[in-house]
Amino acid sequence: MENILVNSLTTTLQNLSGMIAHFLPRLIAMIAIIVIGGIIAWILKVIVRRFLWFVKFNQICEATGFTQMLAKAALPSPTELLSRLVFWVVWVSFLLFGFNALEIAPLQEEISRFFLFLPQIFVAIVILFVGVLAANFFGRATLLTAVNTNWPSPRLLSSIVRFLIITLAVTMALERIGLGRGVVEIAFSIAFGAVMLGLALAFGLGGRDVARKLLERHFLENEEKEDDQDGGISHL
Amino acid sequence: MAKGTFLSDDFLRQLTAVGEVDILVGVPTSNNRKTIEHVVSAIQIGLVKYFSRARTVLINPDAGSRDGTSELLRNASLPDFRTALATPPLRTMHTVTTRYHSSLGPGGALRLILAAADLLRAKACAIVSPDLISITPEWVDALIRPIYHEGYDYLAPIYQRQKFDGLLIKNILSPLISAVYGYRIEEPVGGEFGLSGNLACDLLGQDLWHEDFIRYGAPVWMTATALSGNYRLCQSFLGPKIQSSNQVEVGLADTIQRVVGALFRSLEMHEPQWISRNGSQTVPTFGFQSELDLGPLRVNRKKMCDMFRTGVAELFSILGKILSPATLASIQQVAQSDESCCHFTDELWVKTVYEFAIAYHHSVMNRDHLLQALTPIYRGRISSYLLENHGASFQELKARIESLRVRYENLKPYFITGWRAKA
Amino acid sequence: MNQKNFPFDDDPLWYKDAIFYEVHVRTFKDSDGDGIGDFRGLMEKLDYLEELGVNTLWLLPFYPSPLKDDGYDISNYTDIHPSYGTLEDFRLFLNEAHRRGMRVLTELVVNHTSDQHPWFQEARQSRDNPRRDWYVWSDTPEKYRNARIIFTDTEQSNWAWDSVSKAYYWHRFFSHQPDLNYDNPAVREEVWNIMKFWLDLGVDGFRLDAVPYLVEREGTSCENLPETHEVLKFLRHRLDTFYRCKFLLAEANQWPSDVRAYFGDGDECHVAFHFPLMPRMFMAVRLEDRKPVIEILEKTPPIPETCQWGIFLRNHDELTLEMVTDEERDYLYDEYAKDRIMRVNVGIRRRLAPLMENDRRRIELLNGLLLSLPGSPIIYYGDEIGMGDNVYLGDRNGVRTPMQWNGGWNAGFSNADPEMLYLPLISNALYGYQAVNVESQRRSMHSLLSWMKQIIRIRKSSRVFSRGSLEFLNPANHRVLAYIREAGQDKFLAVNNLSSSAQAVELDLRRFQGLIPIEMFGGNPFPRVNNRPYLLTLGPYQFFWFKLRKL
Asked: Kind of pairing, strands B124-127 and B193-196?
């Protein structure tokens, strides 16, 4: 009895020590990976920040109105944001690598699935982000153009443009992740929306001036019949 | 054409043949077949009549006219000087024509003219619009004499205008430039200018030609640069300016975006020069200014007023980012007031313009959008201006414009505070 | 008459190849120590002129005269002024000149005489004197009011009061120069007699002074009248009938279209001065623009085959500015005679070198134009060494000072006391005879004189200069005056940089594709002409003369 107990204890201890002896290096390896990953991520972050500073990324974003939007959401400057993003993505990846080194089968499976999925999420985030930006920009452009050309209900028009662009962005993002796949109807309507958006974009961006002139002429002609818009005055 | 240059080999060859000149007149064209012959012969007669001994050249950058403007110009024969009360020219008269891409806008033409002035070492340059109907040979004298003989560096024109002509100039450009830069220039964006060779070289040397605003805002920038630097400034009275109407009309919003945008951008560039200037001084004015009233214009004020009201209502969120809460509230009050008395005071207007300039400087949003948001408010101001000055005489109107300028000047500290504040 | 020594008698068009040298006997060399140049002195210096290369001498009036207008007021047409020598001296000089292949042209001043001339003295005696009708008389100064006054500085009217016969007499120039009446056949006959006298002595031609003013008619400007041309045709006919290889040179300070008439149909004058071209050459160099020269030559009408233009830069008169517009005159005054003392009548009393501010390059450029543009060139004495002037001497005497032969006593002009000289020598530091004289320039290969000899030699090497056609090339660079002259197979190209800075020019020489331009001063070939623009670069005021050779 005593022997059995001793034996089993010994075996258990042996097993345990064996397991520990087996597991410890992996743990150390994991920690090492995580630490080194952290350092690499930090270096990358510095490099990216320097690079973006060098190419005057902040100024570029300022011109597009991106910075102002970030500021409104109490987020740091675009350069800072992007470099931090790089840091976290790299470090999380190393973290996962580290866990992987533990060679725990179910965990490994999840991790590999995560790695397969990661780029998709990343792309989806970017799409969403750009979509929101574009929606804001074109929504405002539409609003201003409509007001300056005396188009009826400018805000409604602006909201439609904004909504269409965001819808498109969301669907595209979802599709990236693979959630919207089965829904053909949605895809179809989205495609239709995209066409509409394309037109809106064409009007709003490519042919902005043409569109405005067309509109202006249209309205001016109509109004001239009753009265000139600005009369005969010249501003310059 | 060699890489990295904006001067074509052909243009350069033509310039080599012309050699050093004393006076250069630039006439940028773009489909001006109807008026170009008249303009060019007025210039040639003017040059012979008033500067018969000077070496002269006429530079014509053409934005790819498809109506044969440049051919017409190249093959034009010299005018009959004897019937034009001038003696025949002593020297060969040169006309140099070159093409540039229309996408470069008037700024592209200006750059070619300045480059020619630099290469030919011109002492005085004038820039003249190609679509003038009212130009006379005397314009050449008025534009060039103060530069060539009196040693001025920059000459702005003064036109005889109808009562409600040039409202953007009277309400924003001229008083804002006077207040900020400290020199009272009446017409900072006329189509005609005089420049010394010195100023032309300095303008050419500025590293701005790639910037977007220069394409259409070059005249404002040129004026602002002349005012910001250590140049001798003057104005000259030209007479009525009547242009051929075949040009494509540019909408008000676009005009504001181009011209006011260029001015705001110039303010940014010249900040070190103007920020410490106080008050404003008059600039010597040449020529005899007649006070002939050219008669009233028919104006539809109601439409403008409506557009103003809609604009303020619809753009509330955008304006909120640009204007201070107090100013926005006042504007709203004006917009919501009774239909007939849409009264936009000078003080409110000047504050609005200043706050737009500040918002532009701090890039609170896309700058084009910001400038577009100014249009409806400007309409409100104009509608009010027209109402208040409906029966005003020429002198009264002059006094009103003067008081607006003073208002701009008085509020300059307000502007500087906002300009310097961090967003 | 010594006709044997005439190597060129058989070419009746010899005046086309003439290179004139204009000289006043008084100014050239004094052989007898009286301070005034004379024929024996001039004869001594013929070797110098031969060496220079000129082939025709134009002598200013040397006839007996009260010398109130530098000899243009003649009191005896068939003698020599005693200060200059005797008829025998003249005959000797003429033979010596002919022996050296040089022709001699004298002045025929027959529009007017001196008021000291016996004819006028007789005419004024009484209203019925037989000579009375030899001059133009009137009881009132109101006749011929449309005629302009030429010597605006000194004369108020073209009529002068004769206190002896109590009438007005007509004079286009000074009041001491009464005009002869050409409506009187006796006057014409007498003029022919004068010509005959000199032609028989061996003179080769006459310069007809003041030729547009011979005849007067009411209601006209009294210039260039058809009756005047009648007189010329009469004289020319006589000349052609009785003599060979003689010629007439018309002095008509008029526009080319008016001067053209003096050639007639080849039956009036052989040569006429091209007055309007002269100021325009000066203007072109100052403006740095070829326009004035091209314009005037393009406005010049073609002339009969047997006729020739006489072209010049400077002469014994002021640089006349009558044939320019008011604007051009103001410009030339401002540029060349800023100081009012340099101006006289309607012109500038200065020599070539001071006008060019003694800039050798500009002096050479202008001489280059003179010797390569169509016409027979006339060189004014002293200009070949770059002599200066003295604007303080009054009237036009400033450009008539003694020739500067060397740096010695009286510049080698005379052995007289300096006070005795007819005019003082130029003695300032820049143009004075110590600095500018024949002797020193002869010793230097690079002096203006040596250069002038060279260019005259080149000019004489081809008849393309004297007889060739003219065609302007119009390169885009207006500072460059380029022209082609062609005579038969001879082709000549001149390229002149009128500006003070270096210039590049592209010439359209496609018509001469395949020819080789030979630079005529050095004889070097330049790159062959092809179908592309021919590129040349020229230094300040530089010019090229090319012979276009087919090889």
From this structure: antiparallel
